[in-house]
Backbone:
């Protein structure tokens, strides 16, 4: 085997070993790479397919085992960061999509109204996240509270129609607050820098977003179409609230898979945070908006007078039941999985 | 009687332990020995081997025997503990008992085939 092939093989073996958590690699990495190189026939620059698959699946198992060993509060914080990353992922995508539509002549103005509404809170959330990682965490509480209050005041006092946007940002800021406050309570160390790969995931998702949206508009996005139409039909006139929420619903399986296998998050906490919290905030926002309209008398003036609250409650109950079922399945699977063979 | 309380040991785990029966081995040697012992049926992959070694070490069935540096890399050698040896033998007995159930039943249903009387002519 030439030296060039060996070095390429070793590089690829190291790449595969990234599936394991860093602590595991520090202990076993070199030993496993040595075994992997020995097990690869001469002349190859990549390990055999079944070897590569076993390394990846072993890495995911090791990550899962590490997830289950860490404390609930640490897991809560990291689940919150994961949810923030997933939420933020759609906004750069919205921006790109808006730009594409504008270039095609679909929008008269750029950026569109939705993008304008997203830009400032997105920037604030990003600043809070960066500060949470790098600065004194106690200082982060202040901008978090200010952002939360400012967003609330802007949308509620001005009685903006973009209640869906408000819901998303209340969820986002609540998640950021959780991510920031959990380590203050536990005095735990800040998340490791390696966790920043989530931001890369965010950018990747954002890059794909225009393609997905284009496919959806062309009628090819088979998964998104029934979900959107189902929730829209349930929601009746509540499109502004259910719109952002319905696309989030389709993300739940992804979140469950990511929590379970890849990130440093206990699946139970990840699932609850990703599915239950946003829906609760959506419901509270909807009911609060109805209350404001009722007390200010604006409800009798507009066509939204008959806008019912129950569709939102149904839309909250469905994912809640789904989340409970998922959690039960995960727990059941843990309990009934055969004990380690001895 | 076959003990049904304990779940049966998985085949890769059985052959990892069996590979160490004659003495300590390092990772790649365990893989080769397991393949040889199983007649080529069990081809352990690297990830599977180390997952099994982690578990068996945590359970006290396998232990680290020595550690050396070969070509700039750590090479660890693993060996069976007394507990691991006992578990392996118990599993072998369990499988032998399970096999005997079938073989005995076979003998009862086909007595002429296995207990044929010698011809007297």
Residues:
């Amino acid at each position: 085997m030439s030296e060039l092939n060996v070095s390429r093989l070793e590089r690829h073996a190291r790449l595969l070993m990234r599936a394991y958590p860093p602590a595991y690699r520090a202990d076993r990495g070199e030993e496993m790479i040595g075994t992997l190189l020995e097990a690869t026939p001469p002349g190859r620059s990549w390990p055999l397919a079944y070897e590569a698959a076993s390394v990846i699946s072993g890495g995911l198992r090791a990550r899962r085992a590490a997830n289950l060993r860490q404390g609930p509060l640490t897991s809560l914080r990291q689940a919150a960061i994961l949810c923030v990353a997933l939420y933020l992922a759609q906004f750069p995508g919205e921006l790109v999509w808006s730009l594409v539509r504008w270039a095609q002549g679909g929008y008269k103005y750029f950026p569109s109204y939705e993008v304008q509404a997203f830009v400032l809170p997105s920037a604030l959330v990003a600043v809070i996240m960066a500060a949470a990682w790098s600065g004194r965490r106690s200082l982060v509480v202040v901008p978090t509270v200010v952002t939360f209050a400012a967003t609330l005041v802007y949308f509620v006092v001005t009685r903006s129609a973009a209640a869906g946007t408000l819901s998303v940002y209340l969820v986002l800021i609540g998640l950021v607050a959780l991510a920031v406050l959990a380590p203050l309570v536990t005095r735990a160390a800040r998340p490791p820098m390696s966790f920043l790969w989530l931001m890369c995931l965010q950018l990747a998702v954002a890059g794909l977003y225009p393609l997905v949206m284009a496919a959806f508009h062309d009628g090819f996005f088979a998964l998104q179409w029934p979900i959107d139409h189902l929730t829209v039909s349930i929601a009746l006139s509540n499109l502004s609230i259910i719109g952002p929420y319905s696309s989030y619903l389709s993300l739940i399986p992804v979140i469950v898979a990511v929590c379970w296998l890849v990130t440093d998050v206990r699946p139970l906490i990840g699932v609850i945070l990703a599915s239950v919290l946003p829906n609760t905030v959506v419901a509270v926002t909807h009911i609060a908006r109805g209350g404001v309209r009722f007390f200010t008398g604006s409800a009798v003036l507009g066509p939204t007078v008959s806008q019912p609250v129950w569709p939102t409650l149904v839309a909250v109950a469905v994912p809640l039941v789904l989340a409970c079922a998922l959690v039960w399945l995960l727990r059941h699977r843990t309990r009934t999985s055969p004990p380690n063979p001895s | 009687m076959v003990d049904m309380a304990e779940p049966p040991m998985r085949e890769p785990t059985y052959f990892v332990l069996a590979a160490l029966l004659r003495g300590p081995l390092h990772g790649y040697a365990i893989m080769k020995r397991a393949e040889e012992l199983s007649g080529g049926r069990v081809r352990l992959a690297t990830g599977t081997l180390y997952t099994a070694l982690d578990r068996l070490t945590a359970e006290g069935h396998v232990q680290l025997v020595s550690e050396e540096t070969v070509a700039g890399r750590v090479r660890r050698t693993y060996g069976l503990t007394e507990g691991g040896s006992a578990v392996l033998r118990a599993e072998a007995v369990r499988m032998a008992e399970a096999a005997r159930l079938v073989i005995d039943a076979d003998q009862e249903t086909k007595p002429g085939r296995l207990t044929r009387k010698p011809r007297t002519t």
